[in-house]
Backbone:
């Protein structure tokens, strides 16, 4: 690219003879990214113009001209008729320049007691606030889809895993409810981030405040902020609101990636616990039999991208002196991308949860395999024969070893063999050795018993209604 010069910038070029070179313009322009905040930029300008007029800093006539012009621009953008220009750098100057075309002199009064530094911080907070509300609504829909599936599968047995090794039987409903809990905490983080970001930087001006007698409370209120930010330097420098939103998004994405990975595992031939319909499966161009869970794999991968966005902005902000530095213009691209990506991932996960069917027989068979009720046997020895748990653990270990060597399930071991290894065993022990008995007995608060699962579903339904 050559570095050919432009004519001097109309909005800040007063002390310049020449315009920026082409390379300067290329690295400096943010309009390709920040035009997404056009609606918020106009909203902020409307609030600012009204406040300036209410404080008699501009006339009522200028206010009317500005508001009329901004409405026209809003329509032009909505219709796709607005011409965004890289020469005008960013969304703020694109809109202000168009306002000058439309209404002439009064447009030049809008930027009184304001700077792009407080303007961009305001726009970005407004954009992110709406995005967080959208994320919350999507998380709610995800929770509802999980609850519906959990209700259908409240009694469905499956192996619970630790180390991805069969550990103890659980119910599929209980497993799905674990994700309802995670999504609930994700929503808590979204609410917290929203509450902390909801303060107005507008009127902090470039960094030091302004000598004009403005009313920052008025513009803050008009934009739905709880109050104006108390320190002008902080108002234009702070990006922790975006970091916090990205952190909430990254944690949420990591949660989604875990369910995505489980769907990959469950749909594999070795497990065959669930089936995704053709809606959520893809084929192979060479292997005609394949059904691949690509959507789940992509959700798993997108967690990396979203976490990367958090890291990107953390690194941009690290070590930046107060107040504004142009580095901060790099804040929007990762935030927009992370929230778009998370929105798509959440929609896809919600769709997959609604879509999947459990292969109940396969899950139940797997639930009873791999001596999954060994803990129930040890617990029986404690409860019915008064054996200390550590000793019961050792006795049960020997029974499992015997079963493994003789290729038997625990409930297939004859009573006399059981008694040879653990003399206190009676035939009543067989009642606790089925996976069904195992899950039904786990009625401790938060445990996997179907009656608990139903109670938790009822609690969540009440909470979400
Ligand atoms: N486009 C800029 C950004 O996104 C707006 C603020 C520019 N301020 C400045 N002093 N150059 O950060």
Residues:
């Amino acid at each position: 690219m050559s570095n050919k010069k432009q004519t001097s910038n109309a909005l800040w070029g007063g002390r310049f003879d020449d315009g920026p070179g082409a390379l300067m313009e290329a690295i400096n322009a943010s309009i390709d990214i920040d035009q997404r905040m056009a609606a918020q930029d106009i909203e902020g300008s409307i609030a600012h113009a009204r406040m300036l007029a209410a404080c008699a800093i501009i006339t009522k006539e200028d206010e009317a001209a500005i508001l009329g012009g901004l409405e026209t621009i809003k329509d032009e953008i909505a219709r796709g008729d607005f011409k965004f220009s890289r020469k005008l750098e960013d969304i703020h100057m694109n809109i202000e320049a168009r306002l000058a075309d439309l209404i002439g002199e009064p447009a030049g009064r809008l930027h009184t007691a304001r700077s792009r530094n407080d303007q961009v911080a305001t726009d970005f907070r407004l954009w992110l606030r709406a995005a967080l509300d959208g994320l919350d609504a999507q998380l709610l829909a995800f929770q509802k889809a999980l609850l519906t599936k959990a209700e259908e599968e409240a009694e469905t047995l499956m192996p619970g895993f630790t180390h991805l090794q069969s550990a103890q039987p659980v119910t599929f409903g209980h497993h799905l409810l674990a994700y309802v809990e995670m999504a609930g905490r994700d929503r808590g983080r979204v609410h917290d981030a929203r509450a902390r970001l909801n303060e107005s930087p507008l009127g902090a001006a470039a960094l030091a405040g302004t000598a004009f007698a403005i009313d920052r409370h008025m513009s803050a209120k008009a934009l739905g902020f709880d109050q104006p930010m108390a320190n002008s330097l902080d108002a234009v420098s702070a990006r922790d609101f975006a970091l916090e939103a990205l952190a909430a998004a990254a944690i949420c994405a990591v949660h989604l990636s875990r369910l995505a990975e489980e769907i990959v595992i469950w749909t594999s031939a070795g497990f065959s616990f669930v089936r995704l319909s053709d809606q959520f499966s893809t084929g192979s161009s060479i292997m005609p039999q394949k059904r691949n869970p690509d959507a789940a794999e992509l959700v798993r991968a997108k967690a990396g991208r979203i976490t990367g966005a958090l890291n990107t902005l953390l690194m941009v902000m690290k070590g930046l002196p107060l107040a504004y530095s142009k580095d901060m213009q790099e804040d929007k691209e990762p935030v927009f991308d992370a929230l778009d990506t998370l929105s798509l991932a959440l929609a896809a996960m919600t769709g997959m949860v609604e879509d999947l069917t459990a292969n109940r027989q396969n899950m139940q068979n797997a639930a009873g395999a791999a001596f999954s009720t060994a803990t129930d046997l040890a617990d029986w020895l404690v409860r019915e024969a008064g054996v200390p748990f550590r000793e019961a653990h050792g006795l049960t270990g020997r029974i499992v070893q015997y079963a493994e060597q003789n290729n038997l399930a625990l409930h297939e071991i004859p009573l006399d063999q059981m008694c040879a290894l653990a003399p206190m065993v009676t035939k009543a022990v067989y009642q606790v050795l089925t996976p069904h008995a195992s899950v039904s007995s786990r009625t401790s608060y938060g445990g996997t018993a179907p009656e608990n699962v139903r109670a938790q579903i009822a609690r969540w339904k009440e909470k979400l209604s």
Observations:
- The first strand starts at residue 157 and ends at 162.
- The two ends are 58 Å apart (CA to CA).
